[in-house]
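In this supplementary section we document a worked example of the pipeline. Step one takes a protein sequence of length 150 as its only input; no multiple sequence alignment statistics are reported here. Step two produces a three-dimensional model, which step three serialises into structure tokens for compact storage. The input and output of this example are shown verbatim.
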Amino acid sequence: MEEIHKARLLRLADFLDTIPEKSFDFACWVSGEFGDDGALSCGTTACAFGWATTMPEFRALGLRLLKDGVGIASPSLISTNETTYWKRVREAAKEVFGLSVSELEWLFTPSDEEYDGKPEDDASPAEVAVHIRNFVANGMPCDEGEEDDS
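The serialised model returned by step three reads:
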């Protein structure tokens, strides 16, 4: 089992507190155009993981927002194949934050139920920051269980 990088998650939560609501969309990695240098263009929105790719600390670890999602920068990871895409996301979450698949989904995907304790797709960056801090302090609810990372 990977060790969760709680300090990194807390730095992301603190960073999310600085993101204007109009620049945040929990339901989408990134909208519109963004530069390969990691800068998000004027008017572009991104989710929590999308914004994490703009932070120098995480970019130094290789985290990048690619044209078809997010991942650790590597020429072998550039693909539009959906299986490869989700594999890249899982690898990035594991490498940068030490998260399992279920922890990744708990933290960075909107709720798909009426109420399951996760923020909904219209959540503000501040609401997602609170969600991340709650996870760091308390972990996931017991009924979420662990999934295989393969």
